[in-house]
Amino acid sequence: MKLWSGRFDKDTDALVDELNVSIGFDSRMLPEDIRGSIAHAGMLGAQGIIEQTESEKIIACLKEIQADIEAGRLEFSRDAEDIHMFVETELTRRIGDTGKRVHTARSRNDQVALDIRLYLKKEAAEIKALILELMKVILKLAEGSLDVIMPAYTHLQRAQPTTFAHYMMAYANMLLRDVTRLEDCMERMDECPLGSGALTSTTYPIDRHRVARELGFSRITQNSLDGVSDRDFVIELMGCLSILMMHLSRLSEEIIMWCSWEFKFIELDDAYATGSSIMPQKKNPDIAELVRGKTGRVYGNLIAMLTVMKALPLAYNKDMQEDKEPVFDTIDTVKKCLPVFAAMLDTMRLLPENMRSAAGAGFINATDCADYLVKKGLPFRDAYTIVGRLVNYCIANNETLETLSLEKYREISPLFAEDVYEAISLETCVAARYAPGGPAPDSVKAQMEYISDFIRSRTSS
Question: Which residues make Cβ contacts (< 8 Å) with residue 236, sequence separation at least 6?
Fold first, then answer.
C-alpha cells in the first residue's frame, strides 16, 4: 500500500506505476535523503514536536538502513515509488509507528528539493576538483613547450606564430572560467529549502536555520513557494557543464586535427587511441571524438531541462521529476570525460619539428614584416599593402619571405635592409610579442604562474 493511498478507493494502474516510479534513478540520492531525514528528525526532537526518544530512535534506524544498503544487505524496492518513500517505508517496517513520525512538518516536495541540492553540491565539488587536475596537466604541457613554435590560426588558416605553451594557456584560461563559473553556481545552490513544506511551509514550530547549519548550507531559502519549485540551480549547473564540455570539445577538435597526417603536430599514446577493423594503418583519436560527441549529449540534457521548466506554474508539478535523469546523465558524462581527457593529454607526444615546419610556411610572419616598415616610419596601411605585394610575388614564384632576396625586397621598398631577415624570423616574431597575454616566453611564464596560483588557491587546505 502506498503511503498516500488514504484518499483513493483503488490502486493505481500498473502502467501508471511504470511511468510514475523514479526509484530506478533517484536511488543514487540515498545518502542525501538519509542525511536530510536525520537532520529533520533531530530538529523535530529538539523542538519538542516529537519526543526526544523517538527522534533518537529514528536517527539510529536511518543510519542502520544506510549501512544495510551499502553493505548489500538491503535492496531497493520498486514498490516504494521513489527513494523518499523507500526510506520511510523501511523505517516504519523496522520501528513501527515511530517511523511514521519522521515526515512530520515535511513534504516530499521540500524533501526532494533538499536531496537534489545536497547531491548536486557534492557532485559539483567533485567536478571542480577534476577540472583542476586537468588544468595541472595542461600547465605541465606548457612548462615543457615554451620554445616550441607553431602556427596559430584564424579561419583555420595559418595566421601568426605562437608557441605550444601559449596555445595551452588559452585552454587553461577557459578551464579557469569553468571553475569560477561552478563556484558561482555552487554559491547560489547553497540554500536549504527544507521547511518549505508542500508549498506554504508548516504550522509546526520548526527551526529551519538549525537544519540548514547541520546540513552544511549557509542560509535558508526565503520563500516557501520558490523553495519547492526552484530548479534554477539544476539548469545553471547543466549550463556550466555544457560550457565546460564545449571547451573540451574545442580542444578535442584541435587534437583530432593535430594527430592527423595533414598536421602531425602530436602523437597520441597507444592507450588513448583505437584502430580500424579493416584498415591496418589507422590510429584513430576516438577519445577526443567521443568527448566531442558527448558534448552534444550534454547540450541536449540542458535543452530538455529548460523545456520541462518553461511553462510550469507555481509550485511543485510532477513534470519536475524529469529534472533528475538529465542532470544525472550530464554529471556522469562529464565525470567520465574529464579524467580520460587529462590522461590522453598527459601521455601524448609533441612533434616540435613538424610544428616549426608548419610555422615556416604560410607567411605567418607577414604582420611582422609590415611592422618592420612601420618602425622605419611608414604608415601601417602603406606597409600592409607593400607586404601584400611581397606575399603575392612569393606565391607566384614559390618563395617565402625568408628566402626572398634583399634585392627583391628593395625593389618593392627601399626601406628594407639586411636586418629584415632577423626581424621576420619566427623566433623574433614570438619574442617580440611580450605584451601581457602574448606568446613571448616571459609573458607565457607569467600566464603559467597565474594559472598555477589559481590552482594552488583552490587545492590548498
Answer: 185, 188, 189
SS3 label, residue 53: helix
CATH code for the domain in which residue 268 is found: 1.20.200.10
> What are the C-alpha distances in Å from 427 to residues 7, 100, 148, 401, 421?
80, 76, 10, 14, 11
214 within 8 A of 192, measured Cβ to Cβ: no
Residues 377 and 326 occupy one common structural domain: no
CA 209 vs. chain centroid, Å, equals 31
65 burial via Cβ count (<10 Å: 0-12, 13-18, 19+): buried
Residue finishing a domain among 337, 358, 379: 358
Catalytic residue among 218, 252, 276, 452: 276
Model pTM above 0.70: yes
The answer as to whether 151 is a domain residue is: no
If asked whether residues 184 and 122 sit together in one domain, one would say yes
Catalytic residue among 155, 277, 405, 461: 155
CB burial of residue 153 (10 Å; 0-12, 13-18, 19+): middle
Whether residue 155 lies in the annotated active site: yes
* Residue 376 exposed, middle or buried by CB count within 10 Å (0-12, 13-18, 19+): middle
Write out residues in the chain with pLDDT < 50, as ranges: 4
150 assigned to some structural domain:
no
Distance CA 61, CA 38 (A): 10
Q: Does residue 83 contact residue 91 with C-beta atoms inside 8 Å?
A: no
Tell me: the pLDDT tens digits for 217-253? 999 999 999 999 999 999 999 999 999 999 999 999 9
Length of the chain: 461
DSSP letters of 230-262? --HHHHHHHHHHHHHHHHHHHHHHHHHHHTSTT
Helix (H) or strand (E) holding 159: strand 157-163
Q: Are 205 and 49 in contact (CB under 8 A)?
A: yes
Active site residue 247: no
Which amino acid appears at position 158 of this protein? R
